[in-house]
Every structure is written in C-alpha cells, then in structure tokens.
Amino acid sequence: MLPLTLKEHYTILENESSRTTRSDEERDTGWDAWGTWSDCSRTCGGGASYSLRRCLNGGNCEGRNIRYRTCSNTDCPAESGDFRAQQCSAHNDIKYQGQTYEWIPVSYDPVSPCALRCQARGKSLAVELAPKVLDGTRCKADSLDMCINGICQVSPALLYLWSINHVCDEVNIEIPSSRTEEKGCA
Fold this sequence. Notes:
Strand content: 15-25%
Distance between the termini: 15 Å
Order of helices and strands: HHEEHEEEEEHEE
C-alpha cells in the first residue's frame, strides 16, 4: 500500500470526525444549534477548526459544547519550517528570568506531547513556555497525530491503516469531536 499524502490523510480524518448520525442528533436534546466553524488554526500542514453550541437547559445538557474538525490539509512549503519551532521562536523576544534566549523545541515528551517545551539554544535550560501548543501542532515529529486543545488526538486514518495490517477484535478511536467509534480490524 502506498503511503497517504497529508491531504489524503486528513480528508479521511475530517470525514471521520465530521460524521453525525441521526441517533447523535436525537440524543443531543437541550442544546442550541451548532455555531459556524472557526477560522483554521493553520494555513497549511493540517490545522483544527471548532464549532460551539449553547446549552438551553441551564447547564444541564448531556454531551459536549465544542466539536473539532481538521482544515488546511495541504502540505506547507519547505521554507515555512516546523510549526512547533515557530511557536518556540515566538518567545525569543520575551525575557525569561531577566534574559532573552533563542528558543528551539525540546524533543518529544511522552508525558506532555502537547505542551510547548523549548530549550535555549546552546544552553541546558529547557522550560515549558506554554501549557499547550497551538491546535494542529504534531504530537511528535514523525507522526500525523495532532494536538487539539492541548490533547494529542490519534489519527483515525492511521489506526485504520494499522488495523488492515494487524489482527485484532476492534480498535477504539477517539474522534476530535470527542465521540468514540469502534472500528473492526480486517
């Protein structure tokens, strides 16, 4: 099987995360209609957009008031650089403990993959500059999984590709809309 392009990968992800069944709509009583989708968090490379709704039952609604979908699923030009590195470098002009530093991303942190951890170039100083990276930031460099609202969202497309090459009973996928779907393995 050929590897998916970024656009193909996130087209599958968007189709999975945007699907709503009739039973979902019936279960969502007490809510106002979903609002319009926000601007995308990125202009390329895969970002996230969100939609909000308001509870009409005085705060006693079942379900979530926010949903997400992917957007801007075209590859970024090579010269645009790494999205996490851009976020670290945005702090270069901000003093940290009385000094400014040139910040670069810290390698993958399995405990907090969606926190913005950066290191001062040429120093051993590594700090968390933000509790969460911007939506659409990759959880780790070699993955298409992305951080949305500070949580690493596992790509349904990648789990589907894994499932057709492995034997299992089922795979649970946490969709960015926070709905869990069951996918059988082939």
